[in-house]
Write a structure and sequence with these properties.
Blueprint lengths: L1 H9 L4 H15 L8 E7 L7 E2 L5 E2 L1 H13 L1 E7 L2 H10 L4 E6 L8 E3 L5 E9 L15 E5 L3 H13 L4 E5 L2 H9 L5 E5 H7 L6 E17 L4 H16 L4 H10 L9 H21 L4 H44 L3 E6 L2 E5 L1 H7 L3 H4 L10 H15 L7 E7 L6 E13 L2 E10 L1 H23 L3 E5 L5 E4 L1 H6 L5 H6 L13 H12 L3 E8 L5 E12 L5 E10 L1 H58 L3 H27 L8 E3 L1 H15 L4 E6 L7 E3 L1 H18 L4 E12 L13 E10 L29 H11 L3 E7 L3 E9 L22 E5 L3 H13 L3 E5 L2 H10 L6 E4 L7 H12 L5 E5 L7 H7 L3 E4 L4 H13 L7 E2 L5
Parallel strand pairs: 1-4, 1-5, 8-9, 8-10, 23-25, 29-30, 29-31, 31-32, 32-33, 33-34
Antiparallel strand pairs: 2-3, 5-11, 6-11, 7-10, 7-11, 12-13, 12-16, 14-15, 15-16, 17-18, 17-21, 19-20, 20-21, 22-24, 25-26, 26-28, 27-28
Length: 975
């Protein structure tokens, strides 16, 4: 509008005249002074007519002319640097620019820049809108897209105004005002904010309209980097103040030139002279014309009118051509500087591409002109792009915007582009005109996001842990399949449709509120263990890992985490603890066994001496007629040694230090034998009741140990019934299948014989029932029990591949059930043998034993029965005696456990000296070697201490009388 106004005032015929006058005035006004030349780098951004760079790279604009005038007088050399507005600010701040014009003052900018005191001009921001947008006031901007200039003070003030009105707008930032109006013209934005000068100067070139919305009138200044060029700013202030005070100065002429402000103009004097001469000629022509005919006057008027019309048409065409050139220059500048690729395709080939398009594809612009567009389309998208192009040229429906892949010049990669394309006419022929934007990085980000989402979804769907998202109020938002299955649902969808709430998942619904409160308070991930209830009512134990999820405003959205069913682990842990307890029990029993084995040898040696001498005294008494009281006392001593022998045997049996001598056994017969013994030992007020199954399969058992089991159970029953009662012993056949109820663990299926021993006594308290089989555990008073009875029962039954079960109710009695595997074979009747009195002899016997009492007893017994006896306290001494009497010694009685070389080494040494030597092993206990192993080494027979006198003498006589291929163990340890 300003340009058109200037043309009307001045006229195009006087354009060169005014330019010449302006230059002359500026030259006179700002003649170079005497100051030293200063070189200034001045920033200039595209804001015509305030400041801009034309196509020839020459600076123009109001601020340029003002600065040129000041520089001419001050003697400055000006070097302009073109940049976008925000770049100009950064360059000025960094000191790479010395001066910047047309900058608005702002308090926050004073920390970075120094400003002139004198403003150069006042401007304001003006909203320009697309026609038909209906934008007439600031309120109409709500929800609209607005194009703005980055770092523009008008933009800053508009945002504050928008916030004050509580409006919501989307801003699109640009590098210059020209792009702002272009975005509105292309309808990519609803409105744009530009300087009112720029708007007036360019509004006719865009399909936009000026709105009444005015933003922040402000004054524009010159500015320099902080603390630099204060002298330059001071000089500008002086000249501006002087020029602005003079209405006829060049300042106002420059103002009129760029902004159309009317200036007074006076005709040149030559014009008056020309007018005077013309007036004189006119009078003459008027006088002559009166003589001409009216037809000549009419013709003249017609010619004059035609000439005037021609001149006006010529001027109009010049004006149109000028504006067309300017428009073309502006559009070319826009296209060349736009960031998107621009192209024109005609006859399937590129007729035009801009620099951005060439840069995007890696080619030069000249290389692309004339190239078929299809060569740049990736093969996988070429059919689609060709189809759209043919449809568009044919006038059929074709998308104006779509995505495809282009080939880069290096051939190694593809460029994802978004294309906007339309149909136009170039030189009268149809052409496709459009833009392409490189969206490769965007596509890669989308692909990466999709892949990440796919991986997360795959992990979410296939995870063995239950994953969930639950609101704090209990609403279940999302769960994975594992979570749904954990709670008895076939799928997550089924669980979400059920309407189930989070508190209903807990075995105790009241627990959830405390759990949620703890998580919210900590604001950190938490680990918990809780019991949960499945859909079928079953309860399971789980590890819970949960954390809070917040939005950007730190508002809690929901709780997220995962849950792991650890019921099996918990059962396994309990089983592990139980096994550890059993292992400790086994270690305890092993310790008892080790203790028993350790003391058995020495204890049996002591018992051997006591028993042997007692038997000698009893024998002597019966022969010499000692009084009955002495004989009775000796019998009591002998009974005590037998009791000690049995105790040692029980200890070794319990600890499994001796092997059972098992054979097919009729359990009913064994029960009958024990009943006869019990009737003589337990009080008469206890009734013994038998319930024996007949017929009954035999069991593979050691008769002595089974008798011991029955006796121990019967004695415990007697102690539990001090006031009398009944003792019931029962046998029966049972068949145990693989799946058995009734508390019989760890027994394979098959046929079993069950032995039950039940009493009507006091019973066993529940809290001590798990301990009754522990060794040395007893509830009896001190001196009335060893605590080994039930432990020995348990050990014997286990050694017979059986199982013992106890059931008891306090006050209602106790029942023991013993299970033994049944045999199919019949039991042979017991072999009866008539024992004869032991015989003596005259042979020479070597007795080797480290215990003096045992050795002295053996010498005395053997000598009484006619034998010649040599003795040695160790294996080494025995070997010396044997070597010295190699042919004279008929038998060696050898103890195994001795200091020094020991019995086994001594046995091997004896046999090396005389391979057919007769050796009788007599030992208190050996845990390492069975009788078979010892006879395999060369021993003829084995007897265990404490043995009675007759047993020893019979063994000695048997070995002396014949060589045995293999000897059985003889003595209490084998009974």
């Amino acid at each position: 509008m300003g340009d058109r106004r200037a043309d009307v005032i001045c006229g195009t015929r006087h354009e060169h005249l005014y330019t010449w006058i302006l230059a002359a005035l500026l030259g006179l006004l700002w003649a170079p002074g005497a100051d030293a030349e200063i070189r200034l780098r001045v920033g200039i951004y595209h804001n015509p007519p305030v400041s801009f760079i034309d196509q020839a790279a020459a600076p123009h604009g109001f601020f340029v002319d003002i600065l040129a005038a000041v520089a001419a007088e001050a003697g400055w050399a000006i070097e302009y640097q073109s940049c976008a507005w925000d770049d100009c600010l950064r360059e000025l701040e960094a000191g790479r620019l010395d001066l910047l014009g047309a900058i608005a003052f702002a308090p926050e900018r004073t920390a970075l820049f120094d400003f002139t005191r004198e403003s150069v001009i006042t401007e304001w921001g003006q909203i320009h809108a697309a026609p038909g947008s209906g934008i007439e006031s600031i309120l109409d901007l709500d929800g609209r897209r607005i194009a703005v200039l980055r770092e523009d003070r008008h933009y800053h003030n508009l945002r504050q105004l928008i916030d004050q009105f509580g409006l919501s707008c989307r801003f699109m930032e640009t590098a210059d005002y020209q792009e702002v109006l272009a975005l509105v013209d292309q309808r990519k934005c609803d409105a744009g904010l530009v300087s009112q000068f720029f708007g007036l100067h360019h509004e006719g070139r865009y399909q936009v309209k000026i709105t009444p919305i005015v933003i922040s009138p402000q004054k524009l200044y010159f500015a320099a980097p902080k603390g630099r060029h204060r002298d330059v700013l001071e000089r500008i202030d002086q000249d501006l103040q002087r020029l602005k005070n003079d209405k006829a100065s060049g300042y106002y002429q420059v103002l009129d030139r760029w902004f159309g402000i009317q200036a007074r103009s006076f005709p040149h004097r030559s014009i008056f002279w020309a007018l005077g001469a013309a007036l004189t000629l006119l009078v003459a022509f008027l006088a002559l014309s009166m003589l001409l005919k009216s037809r000549i006057r009419a013709k003249t008027r017609e010619l004059h009118a035609n000439n005037t019309a021609i001149e006006e048409e010529i001027e109009q065409r010049k004006e149109v051509a000028k504006r067309l050139r300017e428009s073309e220059e502006q559009y070319r500048s826009l296209i060349e500087n736009i960031q998107d690729g621009v192209f024109v395709i005609q006859d399937g080939r590129f007729m035009y591409v801009n620099e951005a398009f060439a840069r995007m594809t890696g080619y030069l612009e000249t290389e692309l002109i004339g190239t078929a567009y299809a060569e740049l389309v990736a093969p996988e998208d070429r059919a689609m792009v060709n189809e759209h192009h043919r449809s568009r040229l044919a006038g059929a429906a074709a998308p104006s915007e779509y995505e495809f892949r282009m080939l880069h010049q290096d051939g190694s990669r593809r460029i994802y582009v978004n294309m906007h394309v339309g149909l136009s006419r170039v030189r009268g022929e149809a052409a496709a005109v459009g833009t392409v934007k490189d969206i490769t990085e965007h596509k890669r980000a989308e692909d990466a996001l999709r892949e990440s989402e796919k991986r997360y979804r795959r992990m979410f769907e296939t995870a063995v842990l239950g994953i969930f998202q639950i609101r704090t109020d209990g609403e279940i938002l999302n769960v994975n399949p594992a979570f749904a299955r954990m709670f008895g649902f076939p799928s997550p969808e089924a669980m979400l449709r059920s309407g189930l709430r989070a508190e209903q998942l807990h075995a105790d619904p009241t627990e959830r509120s405390g759990l949620v409160a703890a998580i919210i308070e900590s604001k950190q991930p938490g680990k918990f263990q809780r019991d949960y209830r499945s859909r079928d009512g079953s309860v399971f134990h789980a590890n819970l890992n949960v954390w809070p999820v917040y939005d950007q405003a730190r508002n809690l959205l929901y709780l997220e985490g995962f849950i792991e069913d650890i019921t099996a682990q918990r059962v396994a842990e309990e089983q592990r603890q139980k096994l550890e307890q059993q292992l400790r029990q086994a270690h305890k029993m092993e310790a008892v066994g080790t203790l028993a084995g350790g003391i058995a040898h020495d204890f049996n040696n002591l018992l051997q001496a006591i028993q042997g001498y007692t038997e000698l005294l009893l024998t002597a008494g019966s022969q010499h007629g000692h009084d009955q009281q002495e004989q009775h006392s000796l019998q009591q001593i002998l009974r005590a040694t037998h009791r000690g022998r049995e105790l040692t045997t029980q200890l070794l049996t319990f600890s499994r230090k001796v092997e059972s001598k098992r054979s097919p056994l009729d359990l009913n017969q064994q029960v009958l034998n024990v009943r006869a013994l019990l009737e003589r030992t337990i009080p008469k007020m206890i009734r013994i009741e038998l319930d024996l199954a007949d017929p009954l399969e035999p069991i593979d058992a050691d008769a002595t140990q089974i008798e011991q089991v029955l006796m121990n159970l019967a004695i415990n029953a007697k102690d539990a019934m001090p006031d009398g009662g009944s003792l019931r012993i029962q046998t029966s056949r049972v068949n145990l299948e693989e799946a058995v109820d009734g508390g019989i663990p760890r027994l394979p299926k098959g046929d079993y014989i069950r032995l039950s021993v039940a009493d009507t006594g006091q019973g066993i308290a529940r809290h001590i029932q798990p301990q009754i089989f522990d060794p040395f555990f007893t509830t009896k008073e001190v001196g009335k029990g060893t605590g080994l009875g039930l432990a020995i029962v348990h050990g014997i039954v286990k050694s017979h591949d059986g199982q013992v079960i106890c059931s008891s109710e306090p006050g209602r009695g106790t029942r023991f059930e013993l299970y033994f595997p049944a045999l199919k074979e019949a039991v042979a009747g017991p072999a009866r043998s008539i024992e004869s009195e032991p015989e003596g002899g005259s042979e020479t016997i070597l007795l080797i034993d480290d215990e003096d009492l045992v050795r002295e007893f053996g010498e005395e017994v053997l000598r009484q029965f006619g034998y010649r006896v040599l003795s040695a306290p160790s294996g080494e001494a025995g070997l010396e005696i044997f070597r010295a009497n190699l042919t004279a010694i008929d038998l060696v009685i050898l103890d195994l456990i001795m200091p020094g070389m020991g019995g086994k080494r001594c046995l091997r040494a004896l046999l090396e000296l005389r391979p057919r030597a007769r050796v009788l092993i007599a030992s208190g206990f050996t845990a390492d070697d069975s009788p078979a192993a010892l006879t395999a080494m060369g021993a003829k027979e084995v007897v265990y201490k404490p043995y009675d006198l007759r047993l020893l003498l019979r063994s000695v006589r048997r070995v002396l009388d014949q060589d045995l291929p293999a000897a059985a163990a003889i003595g209490p340890m084998a009974d």
